[in-house]
Specification:
The protein is an alpha+beta fold. It contains eight helices and eleven strands. The chain has a four-stranded antiparallel β-sheet. A hairpin with a 2-residue loop joins strand 4 (about 65) and strand 5.
């Protein structure tokens, strides 16, 4: 609440331009006091475990991870939520496909932020992104089955989809089982709903390779 009041003293556009994740990453990489490492990691690997103190901050260069907040991809920081108070992580974060990451020591990042007069604004914007992600995912649960799976697939298509002609294809890491868990629906229910979505021409029938092909006209620009 206090930070929200402070932010009102700043111009919103200036904050989003000068204190976003890209600027934060650039500053960290340019700092002589920060010693990042590059990491390539396979799918189904745990980066951060719930209930455990984490000593690292991660930045996703390529790939997708999952947590109770939802799915996060290229350009997202992981682990900053426990930076200031050094709390135990509230959620487990796991890769769902091979990822390329920058790894930063938490202590170095904390010291760097504390050396900046307005360093807290970086944390504020990143925390805001995570809060919006959580609220969005909770909003899916207020929808009924068919509406819910439509909303989930549209959201995933906007964030991670690859356009192929008139279709948007989800990466193969988004299996039916994974999407069922994310939408809080059973695999059997998802299977039934997929048939309905094909009838409505929301999903294309091209599913020989088990990928989700979504009708591009059904996905609004984000």
């Amino acid at each position: 609440m206090y930070r929200d009041m402070l932010v009102e003293l700043y111009d919103k556009n200036i904050i989003e331009k000068n204190f976003n994740s890209s600027v934060f990453l650039e500053n960290l990489l340019l700092s002589d006091h920060i010693h990042p490492k590059e990491l390539e990691i396979d799918k189904k690997q745990t980066l951060i475990e719930a209930g455990v103190h984490n000593e690292n901050i991660y930045f996703i260069r390529r790939g997708i991870v999952s947590s109770s907040l939802g799915f996060m991809g290229k350009g997202r920081f992981l682990g900053l939520d426990t930076l200031v108070m050094n709390d135990k992580s509230l959620c487990t974060i796991q890769t769902i496909e091979p990822c390329e990451l920058y790894v930063f020591e938490k202590l170095e990042v904390m010291e760097y932020l504390f050396s900046l007069q307005e360093g807290w604004l970086f944390l504020y914007l990143i925390e805001k992104e995570e809060r919006n992600l959580l609220l969005k995912n909770h909003s899916f649960l207020t929808l009924k089955g068919l509406e819910r799976i439509e909303a989930v697939l549209i959201d995933l298509a906007q964030d991670f989809g690859i356009r192929e002609d008139d279709m948007i294809v989800l990466p193969k890491s988004f299996s039916k089982k994974l999407i069922a868990e994310y939408a809080n629906l059973s695999v059997n229910t998802i299977t039934i709903l997929i048939k309905e979505l094909k009838k409505d021409h929301f999903l294309k029938t091209r599913t020989a390779n088990n990928l989700f092909y979504i009708n591009g006209s059904k996905v609004p620009m984000k």
